[in-house]
Amino acid sequence: MERIYVDHAATSPMHPKVIEKMVAIMNSEFGNPSSIHHFGRSARHIVDEARADLAASIGAHANEIIFTSGGTEADNYAIFGVADTYGHQGKHIITSQIEHHAVLHACKQLEKLGYEVTYLPVDKSGRVCVEDVREALRDDTILVTIMYGNNEVGSIQPIKEIGQLLANHSAIFHTDAVQAYGIEKIDVNVEGIDLMSVSAHKLNGPKGIGFLYANNDIKLSPQIFGGDQERKRRAGTENVASIAGFQEAVHISQKEMNERISSYTQFKSSLIKKLTEEKIHFLQNGSLDYSLPHVLNLSFPGTNVEAMLVNLDLAGIAASSGSACTAGAIDPSHVLVAIHGQGDQRLQNSIRFSFGLFNTIEQIEKVGEETSKIIKRLTK
């Protein structure tokens, strides 16, 4: 049985060239980048080159890239770093109801520490309204954190418009771009982004490495203490091989971005077409107009998400019900609750298909065929 992986929004397979690059580094470079001898300088050179390339990919300066262990740490560093540094100016934060739990749970923790958080609603397409951001802004607002593209329904937020709005306000603008980076063209200067979180494993890089972009004008209190790495902003010996792998993954994603967007858009259309041809009743969560090209979240009335996922897996298809970080949870998706409201049937019958490396149009057509068979069987 051919197994088809359409859960790339949860994590993506490492690109063969990334693996090759990392193995080469692990075989040849073991020095500590903080050491001043040859071995240390050689490792430092690898880290510095990667930092410069990652910065260039978003229009930033090299010294504005802080390496982290991934998206969760980057989100936490941005939120707690701003709270610790700028809390004396105000204790109000704005976010949305559909953020990743790395943001939502960090905000909940700050509420326990005396901060006030406004959780903005989204419309039926899963997007925040810029006017809602404007109305929520206060003199004591120190941080606005709105994700770039949602990991469950794919909705792309009006980041540039929010950035323009905040240009005349002292609040710092953070975006969790974990799901969008490598798929969408991002320029932090054009879009007015002050802080941005990224993770390598979403774009065919290794797990356990990411970065936080922090504009040079933003000062963040460290959240990990120890050595003076990352210009005293994030202690701990740098993960040289993973950083090199991250760099390679970014090189590939930047070079192939247009091709990937075209392929994923075709995959979406193909899957929708196949389901339509098979006369399957489905509803889309989110919008095709403002959506990440690789994420498609569909509701299948009359089905049950657990039964669907089990049957898909038995058919060799790996999809999901949304965020992998809540796998096994019995609570409905907070993203779908925000879009449709508590008690809506879509909370119980929605499946996320997300595309990526090694997927082919033939595989996606097979996914459509097998999904149709399963739905017909379950709704008989």
Automatic annotation (TrEMBL):
Its cofactor is pyridoxal 5'-phosphate. Its EC number is 2.8.1.7. GO terms for molecular function: cysteine desulfurase activity. Residues 4-367 form the Aminotransferase class V domain. Keywords: Iron, Iron-sulfur, Metal-binding, Pyridoxal phosphate, Transferase. SUPFAM superfamilies: PLP-dependent transferases. Coiled coil: none annotated. It catalyses: (sulfur carrier)-H + L-cysteine = (sulfur carrier)-SH + L-alanine. InterPro entries: Aminotrans_V_dom, Aminotrans_V_PyrdxlP_BS, Cysteine_dSase, PyrdxlP-dep_Trfase, PyrdxlP-dep_Trfase_major, PyrdxlP-dep_Trfase_small. Belongs to the class-V pyridoxal-phosphate-dependent aminotransferase family. NifS/IscS subfamily. This is cysteine desulfurase. It comes from Cytobacillus eiseniae. The lineage of its organism: Bacteria, Bacillati, Bacillota, Bacilli, Bacillales.
